[in-house]
Write a structure and sequence with these properties.
Length: 357
């Protein structure tokens, strides 16, 4: 068992507050991803869990035990850094074995068997006698992960572990991490600014901005129902389209709509007359002019291979639709656009908060 609970955790550096009243419960065997833009407080949060940073206010529990003030080595946690942080003069084997030799009471044979087990899992037997400078970035990253594995900690912390790798290797290591998590049943807290990494790896994701969690949920729930405009634009690429609409509680209207889109707000919506209608690029389908929900004019096409992005002007607004390459319309023509009303989001244009429909 390994659960981690952050209770109202705050971190201040002088008069700057990097993390603000953060509440988060990470379940046993969960892969929790903290995702957000640079400077939002992800690493600070992780480093407080690791014990590398003091906690200004609040409480940290691991398996229900208060470790707010505990030393890093009392927390039974292993951290993998973006920079790998390997010892340059040691072989991969020694990089993995060294920590255990220094801090555990395991025998030489037990340590050897742990290193071999990790080497099996990560497929790095042929690297064991090499030093870091004789390895590629991806290989170093595996050794860094191996060094965490041999400790068999309660919780694994990863801080942007893949961001120094090229795109292909990153995608490969992403799959490896996912497999590791599934096979070993480990509890992971993983920090990234990359929303694709967050979407593909997380059992749940916590989207952070300005030291706070904006939204916490399963990746697809966050993707489909972002709680505010920040989350809507941060998760998904190209980002969610926004149309400036009027809303009377049941009908969403726009100058380019053929007729208002009927929705039912779940709460009284007085004051919501000005709204933003959000729709993902892949939720927009093309139709002959005069059909669908609205008319758009094709401004630009970007071919991506099997699919294309079409930029459309809809009245004063601009939309990006992700379409099949055999459906690409000529630039400059008008097309009908169909959107599924079950797949739209509405946001209060003033506060940016989602309106439940
Ligand atoms: N030791 C420090 N002293 C003062 N301010 C700090 C310190 N460490 C971090 N900060 C500030 O705290 C805020 C959060 O930093 P943090 O490193 O947690 O961001 P991050 O989300 O990990 O960003 P990135 O994606 O760039 O790594 C930033 O504004 C940063 O400047
Ligand atoms: Mg960071």
């Amino acid at each position: 068992m390994a659960t981690v609970s952050l209770r109202q955790i705050t971190k201040r550096y002088g008069d700057q507050t990097a993390v603000k009243n953060l509440d988060l419960d990470i379940e046993d065997k969960e892969f929790m991803v903290l995702v957000g833009a640079s400077g939002c407080g992800k690493s600070t949060t992780l480093r407080m869990v690791a014990g590398l940073e003091t906690i200004t206010d609040g409480q940290l529990l691991i398996d229900g035990i208060d470790v707010t003030e505990a030393e890093p080595r009392q927390r039974d946690i292993a951290m993998v850094f973006q920079s790998y942080a390997l010892y340059p003069h040691m072989t991969a084997y020694m990089n993995m074995a060294f920590g255990l030799m220094k801090t555990s009471s395991l025998s030489k044979d037990e340590i050897r068997s742990r290193v071999m087990e990790a080497a099996d899992i990560l497929n790095i037997h042929e690297l064991l006698e090499r030093k870091p400078k004789e390895m590629s970035g991806g290989q170093r990253q595996r050794v860094a992960i191996g060094r965490a594995l041999v400790r068999k900690p309660k919780v694994y912390l990863f801080d942007e572990p893949l961001s120094n790798l090229d795109a292909k290797l990153r995608s490969h290591m992403r799959a490896e991490l996912k497999r590791l998590h599934g096979e070993l049943g480990i509890t992971v807290i993983y920090v990234t600014h990359d929303q694709v990494e967050a979407m593909t790896l997380g059992s749940r994701i916590a989207v952070m901005a300005d030291g706070r969690i904006q939204q916490l949920g399963k990746p697809m729930d966050v993707y489909r129902n972002p709680c505010n405009l920040f989350v809507a634009s941060f998760i998904g690429a190209p980002e969610m389209n926004m149309l400036h609409c009027g809303f009377d509680g049941t009908g969403v209207g726009h100058p380019a709509f053929l007729s208002p889109i009927q929705v039912e707000a779940q709460h009284a919506t007085t004051g919501h007359s000005s709204v933003l209608l959000g729709v993902r690029p892949e939720e927009i389908n093309l139709a002959p002019v005069g059909q669908g929900n609205m008319t758009g004019r094709v401004q630009r096409i970007e071919l991506l291979g099997p699919e294309a992005l079409a930029e459309l002007h809809v009245g004063e607004d601009r939309l990006i639709a992700r379409i099949r390459v055999d459906q690409v319309p000529p630039v400059g023509t008008d097309v009908g656009l169909v959107i599924d009303k079950n797949r739209i989001c509405l946001f209060n244009a003033d506060s940016g908060e989602a309106i439940n429909i």
